[in-house]
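ok so for the tutorial part 2 we go from a plain amino acid sequence to predicted structure tokens. step 1 is just haveing the sequence, like this:
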Amino acid sequence: MLTGKQKRYLRSLAHNLKPIFQVGKGGVNDNLIKQVGEALEARELIKVSVLQNCLEDKHDVGAQISKGADAHLVQIIGNTIVLYKTSEENQSIDLPS
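step 2 — the prediction. this is what the tokens look like for a chain of 97 residues:
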């Protein structure tokens, strides 16, 4: 689990990021989760945008993606989900303790 201090730090890093995935009418599927997992391995911190035509609740979408990709759900703000996962090969983010 992430501490409040770590989440605040990750939110500050995510502020300038643009969402690289969009969840729409199709909702969350295995392919999306696989791609999010690969993106997290490469970047560690990403944003996912939940479109207006998505039939699922954004909190459910965030929970499904974070569970499927084995990532931490840092924040849901508006229709944007921020996810973090420590990269095994490209670790670039040093979390405060």
